[in-house]
C-alpha cells in the first residue's frame, strides 16, 4: 500500500527537497474507448483501478501513485538508483499486465522520469480523488534523449490519409509466448486506422505502397535502435511491397534505411516481400537481394502451398500464409484437406530449416487445428490485437487465449 497524496506532500514539504517523479502515459486509449462503446465509463474505471493497484504493489510504502487523465504519476519518497531504467522496466511490466485483459490489450505504455520542487506538487492534492488532467512544471527537465522509445499519438490527432505505425504481436504456439512483433503501417480513413495495404486494395486510400513501407521500416528501426541503447533486443517483422522494391530510387532509399541499423541487429529484422505471393521465383529473387543486407528473410506463400523449391537458394527462416476464411457461419475449424495441406507445408518448411506462420486468424478452432498441423506462429483478431507499441515477450497459454476471446 502506497502513501496517500496528502501524506506524501506533507512529508515532502517537511524535507524541502526536489521530488523524483515518474510519469506513465497510456497510449491508444481512444481505440479502447471506441471498442468499449457505452461501457467505456466502467471500463475506464476498471483500467485505472487495476493499473493503480498494479503499480502500488511494486512501490515502497512511502511512495505515492496517482491516476490522471492519460495515465499515472508516481512520486518517489526515495528515488531508485536509476529512475529512468526503473520506470522503463515498470512501464514494460504494466504494458504486459494490460495485455492480459481483452479490455486493455491495445493499451501501450510510455514512461518518463523527471524532478520537481516539493512545493510544486501541492496542486495535485485536489486532483487525487478522480482521474483528471495533471500538469507539473519541470523547469529542470532535460530534453528528450535519443534512447527514449519512439512516442505515438492517438488516432484522433491524425488527419485522413495520414500514415502511422502499429505493431501486430505474433504468438509462438511452441513456447506459448509473444515472440515477435510485426511493424506495419495503417492509414487514417474517417477517423479510423485501417491496415494500409487493404485500404489501398479496396480504394479507400490513395497513399502509396512506398509511404507504407517507409513508415513501417522507420518505426521498426527507431524501436530497435532505442532498445539497443538500453541493451535490449527485439525481433520485428516488416513487409516491403514489390512495387517499392522494383523501383530503383525506392529500393535505394529502403536499403539505406536498413543499412543504418548496426549489422548485428539486422538479423532481428525479418523482412518479407508483399505482392508476389503467386510469383515464387520473382519473390525469391527479391528476397535474395534483401538477404545481402544481412536481414532475416520471410516468404509469403499461398495457403497450404507445399512446393517451396523456388526458395531453396534463399535462407528463409519463416514461411507465412494467410488463414482461409471460414467455410460457413458454423465453421468448426479447418477442413480435413486444409489441415493436411498445412501439415505438408510445415514438413516442407522444416526441410528448409524454417518455421511456419499463419496470419489473419479469426477463429480459435482454426488456430487449434493449425497448431495440431505443426504451425508455430500465429497472429490475428483471435490471438492478440494490434497495438501502438510492441507487445512484450509475455507468456500466454492457449487457455489464456480462450479466456481473452470469451471475455471479448
Characterize the structure shown.
With 408 residues, the protein is α/β, with parallel strands linked by helices. It has two domains: 5-127, Alpha-Beta Plaits (2-Layer Sandwich), CATH 3.30.70.270; 166-407, TIM Barrel (Alpha-Beta Barrel). The chain is 36% helix and 22% strand. It has 13 helices and 13 strands. The protein has helices at residues 5-15, 29-36, 40-56, 83-99, 196-201, 209-229, 242-246, 248-259, 263-266, 280-291, 336-351, 364-372, 398-407, and strands at 18-27, 64-68, 71-76, 108-117, 163-172, 177-189, 192-195, 236-241, 269-274, 296-300, 316-322, 355-359, 377-378. Strands 5-6-8-9-10-11-12-13 form an eight-stranded mixed beta barrel. The chain is globular and about 75 Å long.
Sum up the structure in keywords:
single chain, eight-stranded mixed β-barrel, Alpha-Beta Plaits, globular, about 400 residues, 13 helices, four-stranded antiparallel sheet, alpha/beta, 13 strands, TIM Barrel
**What global shape is seen?**
globular
The helix-and-strand class reads alpha/beta
In N-to-C order, the SSE pattern is HEHHEEHEEEEHHEHHHEHEEHEHEH
- Integer count of domains: 2
Task: Please outline the helices and strands.
Blueprint: H1 5-15, E1 18-27, H2 29-36, H3 40-56, E2 64-68, E3 71-76, H4 83-99, E4 108-117, E5 163-172, E6 177-189, E7 192-195, H5 196-201, H6 209-229, E8 236-241, H7 242-246, H8 248-259, H9 263-266, E9 269-274, H10 280-291, E10 296-300, E11 316-322, H11 336-351, E12 355-359, H12 364-372, E13 377-378, H13 398-407
Parallel strand pairs: 6-8, 8-9, 9-10, 10-11, 11-12, 12-13
Antiparallel strand pairs: 1-3, 1-4, 2-3, 5-6, 5-13, 6-7
Amino acid at each position: 500500500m502506497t502513501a496517500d497524496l496528502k501524506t506524501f506532500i506533507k512529508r515532502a514539504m517537511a524535507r524541502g527537497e526536489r521530488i523524483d517523479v515518474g510519469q506513465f502515459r497510456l497510449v491508444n486509449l481512444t481505440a479502447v474507448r471506441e471498442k468499449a462503446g457505452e461501457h467505456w465509463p466502467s471500463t475506464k474505471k476498471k483500467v485505472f483501478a487495476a493499473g493503480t493497484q498494479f503499480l502500488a504493489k511494486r512501490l515502497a510504502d512511502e511512495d505515492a501513485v496517482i491516476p490522471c487523465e492519460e495515465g499515472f504519476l508516481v512520486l518517489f519518497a526515495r528515488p531508485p538508483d536509476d529512475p529512468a531504467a526503473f520506470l522503463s522496466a515498470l512501464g514494460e511490466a504494466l504494458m504486459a499486465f494490460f495485455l492480459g485483459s481483452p479490455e486493455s490489450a491495445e493499451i501501450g505504455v510510455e514512461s518518463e522520469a523527471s524532478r520537481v520542487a516539493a512545493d510544486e506538487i501541492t496542486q495535485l492534492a485536489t486532483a487525487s480523488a478522480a482521474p483528471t488532467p495533471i500538469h507539473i512544471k519541470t523547469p529542470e527537465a532535460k530534453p528528450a534523449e535519443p534512447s527514449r522509445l519512439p512516442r505515438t499519438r492517438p488516432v484522433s490527432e491524425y488527419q485522413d490519409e495520414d500514415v502511422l505505425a502499429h505493431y501486430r504481436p505474433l504468438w509462438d504456439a511452441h513456447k506459448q509466448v509473444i515472440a515477435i512483433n510485426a511493424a506495419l503501417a495503417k492509414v487514417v480513413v474517417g477517423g479510423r486506422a485501417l491496415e494500409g495495404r487493404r485500404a489501398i486494395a479496396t480504394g479507400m486510400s490513395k497513399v502509396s505502397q512506398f509511404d507504407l513501407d517507409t513508415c513501417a521500416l522507420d518505426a521498426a528501426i527507431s524501436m530497435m535502435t532505442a532498445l539497443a541503447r538500453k541493451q535490449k533486443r527485439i525481433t520485428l517483422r516488416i513487409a516491403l511491397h514489390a512495387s517499392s522494391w522494383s523501383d530503383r530510387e525506392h529500393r535505394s532509399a529502403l536499403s539505406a534505411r536498413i543499412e543504418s541499423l548496426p549489422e548485428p541487429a539486422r538479423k532481428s529484422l525479418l523482412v518479407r516481400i508483399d505482392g508476389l505471393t503467386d510469383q515464387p521465383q520473382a519473390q525469391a529473387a527479391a528476397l535474395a537481394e534483401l538477404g545481402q543486407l544481412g536481414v532475416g528473410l520471410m516468404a509469403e506463400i499461398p495457403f497450404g502451398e507445399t512446393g517451396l523449391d523456388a526458395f531453396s537458394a534463399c535462407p528463409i527462416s519463416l514461411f507465412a500464409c494467410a488463414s482461409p476464411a471460414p467455410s460457413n457461419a458454423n465453421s468448426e475449424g479447418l477442413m480435413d484437406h486444409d489441415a493436411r495441406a498445412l501439415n505438408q507445408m510445415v514438413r516442407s518448411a522444416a526441410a528448409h530449416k524454417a518455421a511456419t506462420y499463419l496470419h489473419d486468424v479469426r477463429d480459435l478452432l482454426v488456430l487449434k487445428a493449425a497448431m495440431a498441423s505443426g504451425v508455430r506462429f500465429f497472429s490475428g483478431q483471435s490471438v492478440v490485437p494490434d497495438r501502438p507499441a510492441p507487445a512484450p515477450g509475455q507468456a500466454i497459454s492457449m487457455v489464456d487465449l480462450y479466456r481473452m476471446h470469451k471475455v471479448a
